[in-house]
Structure formats: C-alpha cells, structure tokens
Amino acid sequence: MSESILRVENFSVDYGVGDRAVRAVHDVTFSLGRSEVLGIAGESGSGKSTLVYGLTRLLRAPGVIRSGSASLTIGEEGQRREIDLLSADERELRALRWRHISVVLQSALSALNPVRRIGKEFDEVLRYHGQGTSRAERRARAEELLAMVGLKSDRLDRFPHELSGGQRQRVMIALALALSPDLVIMDEPTTALDVVTQREIIDELRELRERLGFAMIFITHDLSLLVELAEQIMVMYAGRVVERADSSDLYAIPRHPYTVGLMNSFPPLSGEIVPMSGIPGSPPSLASLPTGCAFHPRCPLASEECSLSSPPLVVEGSRSLACFHSSPSVRERLEIRS
Amino acid sequence: MSDAPLLEARGLTKEFLVKPQGSTFARRRPFRAVEDVSVQLREGRVTAVVGESGSGKSVLARMLARTVSPSAGELLVGGKVIDPHQRRDLTYTATVQLVLQDPFASINPVHPIRHVLERPLIIHGTASREVPALSKELLERVALTPGESFLDRYPHELSGGQLQRVSIARALSVRPKVLLADEPISMLDVSVRLGVLNLLRDLCDREHLAILYITHDIASARYIADEVLVMYAGQVVEVAEGTDVVDHPRHPYTQLLVSSVPDPGHQDRVRIQAPSATAFPEEGCRFAPRCPLADDRCRRQVPELVEIGTGHRVRCWRVEEASVLFSSRNSQKGGGEIT
CB contact, 8 Å: B194 with chain A? Predict the structure, then answer.
C-alpha cells in the first residue's frame, strides 16, 4: 500500500455512559492509503456509520469516543503533516471539514436545507471554507461542480424538493468535492435510489476519483457494489471488524462465516435457481450482545470456544480475519451444512 | 388446480389529479400513475412486479387490495367481476390480503402481538374460544416458534425480520387465497431478507396461495417468481415466465435495468447507456426519451404489449432491434449507444 492518509488504531465508541453504555464500535484498527477506496460492509447496527461519525467528530451525545487514536495526513507532498482527529478542537475541525474531509450522507433530502436554493449551499461551503473569492467566482465554481456530476447549472436556483432523489444525491457529491478534499466519506449514498440511478452515480464516482485522486470510504450493506468499487473491503458485525481483504480476494474466497452468509444473502442475476438461506436468526442488539464471538448464535461452524471468548482479528498476509474456525474452504463447508 | 385465476385485474388504470410543477394557479391535470395493467394471479404461483420508484407498482398493489379505487378497469375474483361500489366487502378482504413494506409502520406499536393477530380473527367471525390457539398456530406457520412466546411481546421487542413475519401472519389469519406483498423485504436487514422471501415461496408451494410480489430488486424477483412483470411509468413493458425477463430481456428498459445491477461476476458485461429519468412524455412510448433505439414512431404512438414467445410479451415497436441490443452484450463491445 502507498503512503497512508488516514490511520485509525483501537478505536472504540460507546453510546451512553456507565453501566448502561453500549459499545457500538469495538477496537477498530485500519489505515487507508492516499487515493485508495475502502469499502465498509455491514448490516444496520454493525457500527459502520458510527465508526465514520466518530472519526469525523460528527458523533453527537450520547455517542462517546471511548478509546483509540485517529490521524489524518494532509498537505502537499514534501510538507505533509499529521493531524490528530480525536484531539482537534472545533476551530481545527472546521479547517479540516470540506477542505480535507467531506461526508455524503444517505438521505440527501434531510442533508439539504429544504428552504434554501441549492446555489446557497455551494456558496456557503465555498465562502466559509474556501479562499476569499467573489460571489461571481463562487457561482462559476458551483456551476462547474454541477457540470462535473452531470447537472445543468439552472439547478442552482432550485429548491431540494424540485430535484429527483438521484439529482439531490449528485448535488451532495458535488458539494463534497467542492474544495477537492483528500478524503471523501460516503455513507450509503445510493441505498435510497433505484438501481439505474445507482449505476449512473457509481460510474460517475469512479471516473471522478480517477480524475481527482481523492481517497474514499464507501459504506453500504451491498457487498457486490463494493466489490465493483473498492480496492479493500472491511466487513463489520456488531461493532467489530470481522474480515478485511482486497476486494477481489474477498469476493473470490470469503473466509469469515458472516461474510459468506452476507454474500449468500443476495440472489444471483444469472445461473440456475438454487434455494438460498441467508443467515439464520437476526442481528444482535448491541445492548445484549452474545458472549464470545458475537456471531456465534447464527454461525453454522460455532463451537464451545466461540461462545467463551471473542476471536482476535488476525493478520494473514493481505487479509485480516476474526474467526477461530475459518479456513480457505469455509465456503464449501458452509454450503454442505446448509 | 382450476383454470380461472384466483384474482385477475383487467385494464386497471388510475388517474390522479396533480398540479403542474412551478405554476401555483394552473388547473390540476390528470396524471396516469397506472395505465391499462392486466395481471392474473393463480393458485400456487408467485407473480412479481418489478419497477423503480414512481413506476406505479405500489398503486397497482393498492388497487388490487381495494384501498385505492381504479379510474378504469375491473377486478375479478375466481372469474366473477367485483362490484366497485360495494366498499366494505369482508368476503373480498378474506380472499385478498396486503402485506406492506415497513412492518414498524404497519403494526400498531402500542398493542402486543396477540392483539395484532386476534383483531382480524374476531372481525372475520372466528369463535372467541378458538382465537388464542389460532393465533399461536399462525405464528408457527411463519416460523416464529414457539408461538406462545411471541404472543405477549410488543412490536418494539421484535426485530424487523420477525415483525415482518408477524405482519404476514396477520395477513394469513383470515385464510386468504391471495397475498399481495408490497416490497416486503426492502426495509429488512440484508441477512434476514432471504428468510422472508423463502417463507413467501413456501406459503405458495405448501398452501397454494397466489402471491403478488412487488419489488425494485430484479434479482429477488428472478429468485422467487414464476412470472415477472416489468413496469415503467405506469405501464407494463415486459412480461415473461420464470427467469426469462432477466436472462433474455427484450425491452430496452428491462435491459437497462438488468445491466445496472451490481454483479461482480460479470463486470465485463456491456452496459446500456441511457439518459437519466425525465418527465414522461404525453404521447408515444413513455421510455422513448431515454431509449437508444427510439425513432419517430416511438415518439408518436404508444406501442401495444405484443407476444413474442410463449408467455413472453413486450411493449416496444423496435423489439427486433432491441433484442440485438442485448445479445451483443457478451459478444461485441462498443458501437452506437452501447458502451
């Protein structure tokens, strides 16, 4: 991997404090290379959104960052400096946001102010976070940004409700790229859109990334989407990273039983129709996590060991894996059992 | 198995009056959310309706459930036409039941599951001493076992997947012959979706229900359905048996849809490029503004749904050329509108 832009170590987030605290993100460690795309896959409640809210310091009470460190490397080549994201104060954060890190949220409709024209949003970002530019220059830049995501400049005079879901999400992406940030975080940006629009946006994102070279963290529950888009994929379950690998490796040989289950949860688009089972049971509540490996009550390979202690995330070459029982042939073994 | 479909819709159309955008004082104009849709639901078969948001698929489901009254067209149960003016019709609701997308919104949160299941039983005249046993049995039919352990729990104590099963159990309580499921899995956690889908398939196979499965996910339709209808802008644009719609799509829109689904196994697949969705044209084929093949006739005249093979019908003037569009997917790349 090339030089890293984001390094996260032993990062944990709780909701609430004291006896009633619930651990939403547990001991997550990873690093992201410059211009790399990391995909985070997991179901609702797996901690994937909480992780990035914590890292970008957008987490609100009762969310509390419990432990760990996170640093972002910014600046031109030759004069890079590292910024500790977790100790940065509001002023420092404000200097980072939009310019170095930007976030695109799932629901563009709730992220955009309904009583403001789209142009105003661009104007504000460029005015408060960009260099001192005139109103006309900001307008020109906003038009340029919209053109980049395939929207006409007259959209700047519209209100969010006048745009379709796909157009709104494109506006969010254009905004996120307004100041050419080093890292863009996308939290389920296409989940609420239909597949044709999703495809258009994914293709655009790929092209923009190749051209502009930003690093990206892309969060979704759709593993097949990540395989197409990301270089690395991290799979989360109940707040922990259970598997991390190069995306083509993960797709070809998933090792964690949960990853296998997740892949078997999407019926394929071609081939014979064979009965598929998904994963038995339901995702656990974070307030009452099972002992040991959080996945063991749903896991076909679980043994006594799994209910006693939680498997550590072990690095094996380019892959990290948290499972006592996994082997490269785990997929075949699981298929025979089910 | 009898020949008459359990539930049949003939030429269902729904017009809503809407204000044209941007003009406060303009008169409201009719907008056809669903236009001339015919569908037959048969015993022991799953019929899927696939379409994106705004395609009219939910309005269709609601017309079939009779919660929205059609502007034109008729409904037939077992071959007999339903009188549209008879509003409160217990025999109809005892035959056709609707399962909605979001179980957290469609189940009253202040009552325990027992209440949720008992209400339809009582309304439909089950003797009160049989009610508790029946409720328990219903839960077990949707694989919530043991049934009695769920009866006194409240909706918030159940996961999304479990609650959707409760909502299916509630629909089953009146012993319907037809189940309409409007996006029943799209709000659920990914890992439990297949469980609910398999349950629907099971009910269809074991209890010979006729099921209408409405979805935006064409892969899940392929997995579960015996027949798939594709809707675009209120019209059915393609119908085919089994996996044909996905494996051999003929309508340009279906091809666009299939080629847009993330499918890492086939990343080399040729993609149809089409402009983004726009407002639908008032005349001609509704897909024409986005269609790479559209010509003058497409822009002037609405095509009919034409049979091109056994059970395979397509609404496209240029269906011959359109099939070439897709089969070039794997053989030849580039050229024309295909990239």
Answer: yes
Task: Let me know if residue A167 belongs to a domain.
Answer: yes
CATH architecture of B7-247: 3-Layer(aba) Sandwich (3.40)
Cβ A267–B223 below 8 Å, yes or no? Answer: yes
Counts for chain B of helices (H) and strands (E), in that order: 13, 12
Please state the ipTM of this predicted complex. 0.84
Q: Is residue A116 part of a domain?
A: yes
Any domain includes A254: no
Is residue B193 predicted with pLDDT exceeding 80?
yes
Q: Name the residue ranges covered by the structural domains of chain B.
A: 7-247, 249-339
Task: For residue B276, give the 3-state DSSP assignment.
Answer: coil
The 10s digit of each residue's pLDDT in A80-107 is: 889 999 999 999 999 999 999 999 987 7
B164 has a chain A CB within 8 A of its CB: no
The domain containing residue A146 runs over which residues? 112-180
Predicted confidence (pLDDT) per residue in A149-193, tens digit: 888 888 999 999 888 888 898 999 999 999 989 999 999 888 878
| Nearest-by-CA chain A residue for B161 | A282
Structure token pair of residue B95: 């035959």
Q: Is A234 helix (H, G, I), strand (E, B) or coil?
A: strand
- Name residue, tokens 């995306």: A247
**Residue written as tokens 């550590």?**
A312
Count of domains forming chain A? 1
The shortest CB-CB distance from B191 to any of A43, A165, A196 is to A43
8 Å CB contact of B190 and A221: yes
Give A259 to chain B, closest Cα distance, Å: 10
Lowest pLDDT segment from A196-210, B22-36, B185-199 = B22-36
Q: Looking up tokens 């007999």, which residue turns up? A: B80
